[in-house]
């Protein structure tokens, strides 16, 4: 275990595509979507337990989720839970963590990971992360992890690597040519067929020095906001200062703000059973299915003439399904969703309608 | 309001076809299946509130349901709730009530009604019942109500009336030729086409004297069991005595034991929006439906691309349905059912499976 290694878990998401399991009050990262007994943030946290000392793990989240983080991660040091007063996408989140870590260890090598992704092959993941951290500690590289695409997913960003340029010492690590946003289906097909594109898993590994240099170069305004308050970090004035920073700070992703612009970006092509489990459909692909192709979380689910369904209900709930095909059946809290898997994009509209309805009732 | 009029509400059913709304712990009669805010037994009770004094209304039920009856019918006199120690079908239930009423008023005219049927046209029902009671008070007739069949239902018993014989003073009342059990579909079609058959609604109106005479004639063994304990009724010894009676008493329906055999059986053909709401499908036919042919009970149900469904969920439950067709969606207590309407006969099997599952878990 390397004491210079640090992890920043980004846990500020408020995604609604997993409604009704995820809600603004309890987003996806705090939920056991896989039915394993562990929430996604718990899985993410434990994924790094052999990588670095527990006190080197930071979680960046919203003030509203601080208690949830402390409750779900009993091993975390409370002062390692950073609360963003406003949601400003990933770049400010990482800048904040960078300055906090710099006050402790300027020689840190930092892994930045989303709290709400799934990794099925933990051992492969561990190897890849260690290799990346080693490379980052020795080079001024911004390293990202790219997933070998299994099909033309249009919901992911893609990373094109340079197949010519070989890093002699780290032969799995390739130079990045291009970061792209979510492509259309045709484009995604071309990407996958080319063999030069990887899914952007949103995982970054770099030395703190390289990261701060990149911010200074590509996002100087954000860097200056945090730099100006350096004396206030880890003092009672920090919260007030951060509140002011976030009020004026622009909202921008690390991909768009840094990775797409920097010249020293590298990628490790890896296959560790990764998914951002961005939708019920993505989760369905990921989890084990029974003979009838049903993926069921819930101990008291009886299914008759039911195929291709993803079911996620409380363990003690008795659920009887008959004659359903390719459906999502989810109960959480006081809400129930039954929806065709093919129509899961409806969920966003549904959540809007639900919010409106609540607004009307409240009015 | 006639002080000689009495009502016996039979509330001993433990039907499972309305699972998960109805369970052995809370059968259909104690449930608000229509979503009107009143349970079926409450609707039944209030249907007779202008017919006779409240103290003349009896409910016969199982010991397990006594508290439920008292809770749901705050107007009932506690000593009017008769508890059967064992389920022995309708004949013993009626015999027990007969003896109880005889101790109070030997000149009673009694209406016997199931607790769990629906009547949509309450005013027509009231008129028919009053006419029947008047006829019963003046004649040694066993009167039953027959519903003009709207289609060849194979789940009901049928009553054939004699279209020749006319009761001059009560021209709606017809002599009964035949009581039959549930017919096959072909037979049911013939019945309906003949114009001589009515659905057996399980409602009986007779003078106490006529009823007791019929029991003495056609079910003398049952009658003797109750007659032998006459001195014990309305004393502390009643419960023990009734326990003994029910241990030895045979289980038999009033239809099979009396109505099919007696010669003085009459029927009033009526149309008061009756249903025994024996299944979710029957309930679906009965209740109002929206433009998409959905019948929804529940204040927070959002339906998208959903047609022909019957939905019954707790008022505060948020339920989102998408892409469902001709389904039953019911949540009650800790159980949820989603089932094709056409497959509702599965519910019986499902309930058995659920019971088995519980048995296994308990073992």
Descriptors for this entry?
homodimer; 363 residues; alpha/beta; 5-stranded mixed beta barrel; 4-stranded mixed beta sheet; 11 helices; 17 strands
Give your account of this protein's structure:
Two copies of one chain form a homodimer. With 363 residues, the first copy, chain A, is of the alpha/beta class. Chain A has helices at 40-47, 66-72, 90-104, 122-138, 185-194, 208-218, 220-227, 238-248, 254-259, 280-286, 346-362; strands at 5-11, 57-62, 81-84, 109-114, 118-119, 142-147, 158-166, 173-180, 197-207, 265-270, 274-275, 295-297, 301-304, 310-312, 318-322, 327-332, 335-340. Chain A has a five-stranded mixed barrel with strand order 6-9-7-8-10. Chain A has a four-stranded mixed β-sheet with strand order 12-14-16-17, covered by helices on one side. In chain A, helix 3 (90-104) packs across helix 7 (220-227) and helix 6 crosses helix 7 (220-227). The mean pLDDT of chain A is 92. At the A-B interface, strand 15, strand 16, strand 17 and helix 11 of A face strand 15, strand 16, strand 17 and helix 11 of B. Strand 17 (335-340) of chain A pairs parallel with strand 15 of chain B.
Structure, briefly:
The structure is a homodimer of 363-residue chains. Chain A has helices at residues 40-47, 66-72, 90-104, 122-138, 185-194, 208-218, 220-227, 238-248, 254-259, 280-286, 346-362, and strands spanning 5-11, 57-62, 81-84, 109-114, 118-119, 142-147, 158-166, 173-180, 197-207, 265-270, 274-275, 295-297, 301-304, 310-312, 318-322, 327-332, 335-340.
């Amino acid at each position: 275990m390397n004491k210079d290694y640090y992890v920043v878990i980004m846990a500020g998401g408020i995604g609604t595509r997993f409604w009704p399991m995820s809600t603004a009050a309890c987003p996806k990262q705090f939920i056991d979507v896989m039915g394993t007994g562990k929430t996604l943030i718990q899985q993410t946290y434990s994924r790094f337990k052999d990588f670095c000392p527990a006190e080197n793990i930071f979680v960046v989240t919203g003030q509203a989720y601080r208690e949830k983080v402390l409750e779900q991660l009993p091993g975390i040091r409370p002062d390692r839970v950073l609360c963003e007063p406003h949601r400003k996408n990933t770049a400010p989140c990482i800048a904040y963590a960078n300055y906090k870590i710099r006050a402790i260890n300027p020689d840190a090598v930092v892994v930045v990971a989303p709290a709400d992704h799934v990794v099925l092959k933990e051992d492969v993941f561990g190897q890849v992360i260690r290799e990346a951290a080693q490379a980052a500690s020795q080079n001024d590289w911004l390293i990202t992890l790219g997933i070998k695409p299994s099909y033309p997913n249009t919901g992911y960003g893609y990373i094109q690597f340079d197949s010519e340029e070989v890093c002699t010492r780290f032969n799995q690590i390739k130079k990045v040519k291009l970061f792209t946003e979510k492509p259309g289906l045709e484009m995604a097909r071309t990407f996958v067929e080319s063999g030069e594109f990887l899914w952007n898993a949103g995982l970054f590994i770099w030395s703190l020095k390289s990261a701060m240099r990149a911010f200074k170069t590509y996002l100087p305004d954000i860097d200056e906001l945090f730099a100006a308050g350096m004396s206030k970090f880890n003092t009672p004035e920090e919260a007030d200062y951060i509140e002011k920073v976030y009020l004026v700070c622009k909202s921008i992703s690390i991909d768009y703000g840094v990775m797409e612009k920097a010249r020293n970006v590298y990628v490790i092509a890896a296959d560790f059973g990764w998914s951002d489990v961005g939708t019920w459909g993505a989760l369905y692909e990921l989890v084990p299915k029974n003979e009838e192709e049903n993926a069921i979380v819930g101990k008291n689910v009886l299914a008759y003439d039911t195929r291709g369904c993803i079911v996620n209900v409380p363990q003690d709930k008795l659920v009887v399904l008959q004659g359903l095909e390719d459906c999502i059946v989810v109960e959480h809290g006081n809400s129930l969703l039954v929806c065709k898997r093919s129509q899961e994009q409806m969920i966003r509209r549904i959540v809007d309608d639900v919010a409106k309805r609540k607004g009307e009732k409240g009015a």
